[in-house]
Amino acid sequence: MSATTAMEVNIEARRILAVSISKLYASRSQRGGLRLHRSLLLSLVMKSARDIYHSSRESDAPSEAQSPPEEPMDTSSSPELPEPQPEPLSERNSSETAVKESDSEEEDYESDTTEDKENLSPARQSRKRRGKASAAPDFLPNKRARLEPGEERYAAPVASCRVGAGESLTTLSLNQVIPAF
Amino acid sequence: MGEDAESPKINHTFLRDYVTEADVISTVEFNQTGDLLATGDKGGRVVIFQRETESKGESEEAGEVGDSGEYNVYSTFQSHEPDFDYLKSLEIEEKINKIRWLPQQNAAHFLLSTNDKTVKLWKVSERDKRPEGYNLKDEEGRIKDVSTITSLRVQNSLPCGFTVPVLKPTDLMVEVRPRRVFANGHTYHINSISVNSDGETYLSADDLRINMWHLDITDRSFSILCDPDLFSAEFPPHHCHVFVYSSSKGTLRLCDMRASALCDKHTKLFTPFTNKSFHHQCKVSNRETQFFLSGSVVSECPAHPQVHEYLRSKLCSLYENDCIFDKFECVWNSSDSVIMTGAYNSFFRMFDRETGRGVTLEAWRENSKPRAVLRTRRVYTGGKRRRGDVGVDSLDFTKKILHMAWHPAENIIAIAATNNLYIFQDRVNPDAQTQ
Predict the structure, then answer these.
(1) Do the chains contact at B278 and A48, CB–CB below 8 Å?
(2) How far is CA B428 from CA B30, B64, B405, B432, in A?
(3) What residues have CB less than 8 Å from A78, skipping those under 6 apart?
(4) How far is B31 from chain A (nearest CA, A)?
(5) What's the pLDDT band for A174 if we cut at 50, 70, 90?
(6) DSSP secondary-structure letter at B140?
(7) Bridge-partner residues for A73, per DSSP?
(8) Does the pLDDT at position B53 exceed 80?
(9) What confidence tens digit (pLDDT) does each residue in B65-113 have?
(10) Cβ contacts of residue B385 below 8 Å, gap of 6+?
(11) With a cut of 0.85, is the ipTM above it?
């Protein structure tokens, strides 16, 4: 597809993603509680929009790249949203935590490769190009806490999105709202 | 409203919207004979209409059906109240999601009504006699001491006797009493209930699970299905061992309860044609299961492109204003030849199963007078524009017809348009069989 339509698709996919996320957040406060079916549909739309967003970014990438044009996105390190077929018990939680998981895992990935990156001197900053999918999409607000002067940022441990070590909880609690379900 | 001419014109529209939110009708259901029509609203109330039996006088001629009776309010009661789930810190809406009538077995009528979490069985009975003639109190108004009573007579009792009360005719009173409350059966929101033809059991379905209840037992139910893709479930009219449930992907699964206790393996699977696009996944989910009344064939809404095809270009805006999540009910007529469903702009549509042809009608008081013939409407999608056509961009998406019911024997339909109930009759072909 041409560059302009790829750009349009990209923008549209981003917009739909933003709308979906805001709907998902808004549905938490609606009367009667979360509607499972609606949340599932929203997460399906988000997944499709995200796939389209990434695939349109791929085709947007400099076409002179010699790599094969259409790499399937599954090979990337981006976390997959859970399929809507799974065990019923985890279903609802997974659709709710899908957004959180994808954010937290992307952050973890970030922190792995960019540990202490902010404090590195420019000369020593890694030149490694991060995978596109792992970069936080720019339509999402920055979730990193603002540091007070004199504070240091501690790297979150790798498996911190799973409830485990106590310190990982305190690291995350500032950045994420965990629904009380 | 013209009392104070000096005060500026106050805009009451917000008040109107606020006041009538609870009046929005959320379900409509005829009983098995069609004489009673029940509606449930968002405020948790149920209103029952009864068809007036017209007196057959001079109008009775050979072959003439006579004027059909009108539906008037029979009874109103508060079925569900707003509730709170303390464990999850969630409000439970009182909105009535479904009403189902039980087959009538005696003079009283029974119906099941459900909100998101609780199903209730209500008994609707008439009382047109009242016992009179009690003399439980003496002349001074004190209640008589039972130990002093020595006789019981029909009338003219002695001071030391009770009078047997006599039943006297009185104005008709309709009493509605809750008989059973089936609570705590569902973790998710109940979307459908269906009464079994055996008259003893019914099923309730939420987003994930189908429970089977016995009408007399409220403290336990059987979970007969767990499926994350569940949309609605229904018993057929004549077979008590099978049921059907639909999924959000538009598939229907038929399950036989005789095969095993847990019906997660379906007996039959019906799959319609589906497109692959993320918005279409939402559209496909707007279906409801409805059996043919003959019970022998299972069917569902006709393919969506036929019904809402003109909305395809507006999918994005429908998604943003949440209209894409609207669930339109589909209902069949009694002879299964015509299916009807709702749309936006107070339109509703009927399709003939044989020919596939459809007609669009409007349920909007200001555009038609009572007893006038409804004129057909059309959504303009291109080509030659006719007078009265409505463009896709002029459709009012706040006026949606989601709930409707078709009389079980005649061509009478009840359409719920927000907080109004419209009842239409086909005077040309009143009986379904003549079509």
Answers:
(1) yes
(2) 22, 11, 19, 11
(3) A54, A102, A106, A131, A133, A134
(4) 29
(5) very low
(6) T
(7) none
(8) yes
(9) 444 678 999 999 999 999 998 888 889 999 999 999 999 999 999 999 9
(10) none
(11) no
10 Å CB burial of residue B335 (0-12, 13-18, 19+) is: middle
pLDDT at A169 > cutoff 90:
no
B9 dihedral zone (left: phi>0; alpha: psi -120 to 50; beta): beta
Give the pair of three-digit tokens for residue B260: 């095993």
Higher pLDDT, B164 or A145: B164
Residue B320: closest C-alpha in chain A: A19
Q: Amino acid identity of B37?
A: L
Does the global pTM surpass 0.80? no
Do B319 and A84 lie within an 8 Å CB cutoff? no
pLDDT (mean) for A6-11:
86
pLDDT reported for residue B78: 97
User: Is the Cβ pair A37, B231 closer than 8 Å?
Assistant: yes
Residues of B in contact with A180 (CB under 8 A): 88-89
The model's confidence at residue A85, banded by pLDDT at 50, 70 and 90, is very low
pLDDT for B173 beyond 60: yes
pLDDT at site B387? 77
Task: Tell me the torsion sign for CA atoms B247, B253, B257, B263.
Answer: negative
Q: Which residues contact A47 (CB under 8 A, 6 or more apart)?
A: A81, B278
Tokens representing residue B318 in the block? 């429908």
| A24 contacts in chain B (CB < 8 Å) | none
Smallest Cβ distance to A84: which of B226, B228, B316?
Answer: B228
Facing A31 at nearest CB: one of B93, B227, B279? B93
Tell me how far apart the alpha carbons of residues B356 and B338 are, in angstroms, rounded to a whole number. 9
The rounded distance, in Å, linking the Cα atoms of B406 and B416 is 12
Mean pLDDT, residues B381-405 taken together: 84
Long-range CB pairs of A125-134, under 8 A, 24+ apart, other chains included: A131/A76, A131/A77, A131/A78, A132/A54, A132/A57, A132/A58, A132/A61, A132/A76, A133/A54, A133/A73, A133/A76, A133/A77, A133/A78, A134/A76, A134/A77, A134/A78, A134/A106, A134/A109, A134/A110
Strands B119-132 and B209-214: unpaired
